[in-house]
Amino acid sequence: MTVRQAVPGDFEAVLPLLREFRNPYVGLEGWRRLFSDPFGSGEPSCGTLMLDGESPVGFLGALVSRRVLAGRERRMCNLTSWIVREPYRGRSVFMLLPLLKEPGTDIVDLTPSAEVSGLLLKAGFRELETGTSVLMPRFPSGPACMVIEADEVEHDILTPDERRLRDDHRFPGCRAFLITSGGGRCFCVISRMVRRKKPFLLGAVHHIGNPEVFSRCSGRAVAKLCLRLGVTSLYADERMLKGERIPVSFRLALKRPRLFRSMDLAPGDVDNLYSEFPLLNI
What we know:
2 domains, alpha+beta, Aminopeptidase, 24% helix, twelve-stranded mixed β-sheet, 12 strands, 9 helices
């Protein structure tokens, strides 16, 4: 048994492992994106691979990006699609160790399993998020606002950072919006996705640029966003709202907390961009 970096050329060999997730919403092209440096990091590795001889028996995806968070540029690593075949699961930690040793890297796992959660907590990870807010459209109230898709606004209206976020997240179902009102503006990135085992569509919010403006305009903005996306509601992790309360919303506790490992980032500094959420639309 050996563990090494996974590289783009491993995709065909790893695909049978990924299909064991049996996720009907992630097709061939979705899995392929994990091996294509989707966020332009320029790094050849896309995770770690466990092999028995020449046969892949485990894969841990690593989505690397460069971001400015909490005032400085950082190397971010979002874990994804960790799967190990049953006879080898006792050695799963050996797939994580190379990623933990990479210097100057903040690591996030938004969807850890129960087994993975225990492993990550022992490795120094902390809770990133424990709940999500479900935002329901309601009869428009509050200040007037405009909701414009980022691709429809003039180039100079978006800031350089907003243009980068929009361009880095051009994946199926993922869209960027600009909310403007007399009191300010808020840039958002949202995916339209099918909720597993539920007969409806929802909008998963990955980034809220100005929670105060979003909250103040929510009476109209949430309804307009749901209409533009063709969804029944929006889901936003609580930390992205930074304490702002959204009328006609309710809290759902996550089955397991999202986790992260960082020397100095606070949970509120980390959104859900550059992760498996917009990439795989899950």
